[in-house]
Design goal:
The structure holds two protein chains of two kinds. By secondary structure, chain A is an all-beta fold. Chain A has one domain (about 5-100): Immunoglobulins (Immunoglobulin-like, Sandwich). Chain A is about 0% helix and about 45% strand. Chain A contains no helices and eleven strands. In chain A, the strands form two sheets. In chain A, strands 2, 4, 5, 6, 9, 10 and 11 form a seven-stranded mixed β-sheet that branches. Chain B has one domain (about 5-115): Immunoglobulin-like (Sandwich), CATH 2.60.40. Chain B contains no helices and eleven strands. In chain B, strands 2, 4, 5, 9, 10 and 11 form a six-stranded mixed β-sheet that branches. In chain B, a hairpin with an 8-residue loop joins strand 9 and strand 10 (about 105). Chain B is globular. Classes of the chains: A mainly beta, B mainly beta. Chains A and B meet through strand 5 and strand 10 of A and strand 4, strand 5, strand 9 and strand 10 of B.
């Protein structure tokens, strides 16, 4: 079946521009996660949704970062007034549930953001 | 703070040999561990996972070992193939009522030599 998809795959933004990154999770997956991956590093947690509820946003680096999942499926990560330090790969992951075998997270291909 | 880390940043092995990738963790509250493979330009791909009530788990050509006494995790790949060349990450999740996110290490680059 279809995996997690993300769009756009690549985004170049001028410093100060707003960007919106989209994630389509695996159909039926309750949990959705956003991670940020800097070059040569492991992914770092940004925020987590269970259905439409954003249960944890402790990893968002500043109030310029905002995420939503209004209907409990597709999610959008928005970054306002982008800065050069926002350049990274933004990964989305989804899982069927939150316990046992259902909590395995499956990742999308990521959106590579470059802020000039 | 507590973190997941890897012993070696790079590992080169001959095709057909076995590979062992190591990972140290320091968060004693973690009860779920996962290995991911990430190829260039792609997202992390799930390989195998293990819970803290187990010491060993086997998959197809892969085995994960967990030593809770020394907080050590390893991934063994049998008969390593060129397609196994990638960055491998270990990740952990806390045994917590609310925490759901994974904490990743910095990764090991595995290169398979012909």
């Amino acid at each position: 079946g279809a995996g997690v998809s993300q769009s756009p795959r690549y985004k170049v933004a001028k410093r100060g521009q707003d960007v919106a990154l989209r994630c389509d999770p695996i159909s039926g997956h309750v949990s959705l996660f956003w991670y940020q991956q800097a070059l040569g590093q492991g992914p770092e947690f940004l925020t987590y949704f269970q259905n439409e509820a954003q249960l944890d946003k402790s990893g968002l680096p500043s109030d310029r970062f905002f995420a939503e999942r209004p209907e409990g499926s597709v999610s959008t990560l928005k970054i306002q007034r982008t800065q050069q330090e926002d350049s990274a790969v933004y990964l989305c992951a989804s899982s069927l549930g939150t316990s046992g075998r259902k909590e395995t997270q499956y990742f999308g291909p990521g959106t590579r953001l470059l802020v000039l | 703070g507590e973190s997941v880390g890897l012993h070696l940043p790079t590992l080169s092995v001959q095709e057909g040999d076995n590979s062992i990738i190591n990972c140290a963790y320091s968060n004693s509250a973690s009860d779920y561990f996962i290995w991911y493979k990430q190829e260039s330009g792609k997202g992390p791909q799930f390989i195998i996972d293990i819970r803290s009530n187990m010491d060993k788990r086997q998959g197809q050509r892969v085995t994960v070992l967990l030593n809770k006494t020394v907080k050590h995790l390893s991934l063994q790949i049998a008969a390593t193939q060129p397609g196994d060349s990638a960055v491998y990450f270990c990740a952990e999740k806390e045994r917590s009522g609310s925490a759901r996110q994974l904490t990743f290490g910095s990764g090991t680059q595995l290169t398979v030599l012909p």
